[in-house]
Design brief:
3 domains, alpha+beta, 24 helices, single chain, seven-stranded mixed β-sheet
Amino acid sequence: MTLRKKLAVSTITASVALTAFAGIPLSNKGLAEKLGVSGVAYASSLEGSQLATDVKKLYDALVATSGLPKVEALQAALDGLAIHVKGDIVAPIVDKFQPSASEETQLENLFYDAVSLSYNPSVAGLEALRAEHGALLQSFATEAGVTDLTVDDIALYFFDIQEELVAQVGSKDLNGLLEIMTSSSGVQQLLSDVLAALPESEYNVEKIFLHYGVNTNDVISVLTEARTAVNNDTTFTAAAGALFTAYKSLNSSGGGVGGGGGGGVIVTPTAPLPETTDKLLNDLKAALDKATEAEKAALITKFVADATAEIAKLATINAASSISNINGKAVLQLDESNLLSAIAGINAVTAKVKELAPGSSVAKSALKFDLGAVTQKDVVLNLSDAVVKAAAAGNVSGATFVIGGFEVTVPVGGSFSSAISLAINKTDASAAVVGTLKPVSEVYDFNLTIGGVAKTSFDQPIVISLPLGDTTGLDKELLSVAKIVDGKLVFHGGRVSGNSIIESRDSFSSYVVVENKVSFTDIAKVEAWAGREIQVVAAKGAIEGKSEGKFVPQDKVTRAEFAKMLIRALDLENGSATEAFADVDAADWFAPYVAAAAQLKIINGRSASKFDPNATITRAEMATMIARALKVSKGAVDVTDVDAALKGFADASKINATLKDGVAFAATHKIVIGNAGKFLPKNNATRAEAAVIIYRALNFDN
């Protein structure tokens, strides 16, 4: 086996355990002097060196791809570990160096600081690492017979490795890379292939590793120890993914590091900034360079406003010219390079706002594609793999497609991380489909593929806005989006806005909008205060009768029933949600609603393993669930003074402390109303009361 095939060298994934020697581009200044290396040419300062420039470009790539918070989160988690835990993490490598008692802690700190810095590269961090660990580094190099080790040797070797690694995984998506990284054999083979591809000239750094017997398994052990210590695999892999995405956002045309070898670090962004974005940023820089401190504040304030306008402009795309008629279908094929440029612009402007005005957050926005008037009944909407990945890695929440009065918003990220193709077919709503109900839209049939794989359900909702036809003489509050299942209509509600109805879907099928008049023969006694509310909530499919024509308004509501009412009414269904309650079986009718509510933290179990679905729900519990659901669905905010909100209730002291916030919210917004000066928190709610409360929640407006 050749020398290279024995070495462990990945710095692009979460297994960056060797970055004290691997991938930390230190300048020669200072460190060379500390190491006692003579005759070495080096930059006059680290700040101005080529290596520091390359580090800054990697840092900027992390910012531009929105990866910096992810690497910072992991760095914070690593920094927060106890000293002895940090030592345990790097022990598989440190032990190979057989340090003396006095050297052991220093060596542990060297490796650990390098691991941490690799996730958040900065010039300041490099200076600190250089100053603290330089002498120790040379002492181990000398022991290995390398008396002339230079920092350029170290940096060049590992930048060559980084570049080759990016090239080899370039054909894989992020999920594919992470799959490799969870397999010891996969990691080992990848690293061996990367090393074998390097130039045959021998590197001094390799001599050091060979001397101390560091191998791939040692790196994998460090990775395992770090993941275990952080105890959050999501944080760890998110940081690895962020680094991967940052490197992939650069290409090799910008020159290399050092004076030879494999071409160096990747430095040039793949997508140029739009001209307007480039001008905005350059004009800002020029103005700030000449401004006084007093003038800078005004310039930054103006820039935040200009940045918002620039992002809105970049995110709005006229796509009418990108439609082709293929076999009678309107097929959208967007210009990938222009889209990648727009996304790069959005990311750059967002990053600059964050840098200059940290208190002025820029919310993620959806790219909006206006297709204009499309006459075809069949439409295919496509987003390429590169665009989806770039959008998911940046400050983009999804893509909204507008076709006349129809809109659909598809998220990016999560399960929507590969090429997306959404096919839409429209047909007339015949009596065979809607029966005696009055249709107010055409029938829309949706088919979705992600990465070429058909998907019928998904973990993030797709939002559809269906245009309404003639509603003359119809009751708009009774309009509902109905899913067509085995020839029958299942009502999912929807929110009427202008001449459209909006509905979030966690699965796809065929849909039509109808006026759904539901009548019950047993609600006369509650008609005056709950009749209309029962009718509307029933039309939306949130509450059903107990039998044909029977609502049974005085029956008590169970926890399972209210979970369904709330999730269905507020459009929070999520078929991929799961729960772990021992008393909720996957086959139970209420299981998907309990799972969705539990995942959103709208409702808690009576214990960690018990939901108690058939127990009746109290008014205080119901108020709390409503409050939590409205925060999720409509961005509601907590009441600031809970005690003041409850002081009008004589029985406020009887409200459980964990439910007071929810009761205060519901009472303040008159969603759950008291009776004769009391809230009656422990009273059980009736079905009629639940219908009224759900109706008020539907009409809630901040």
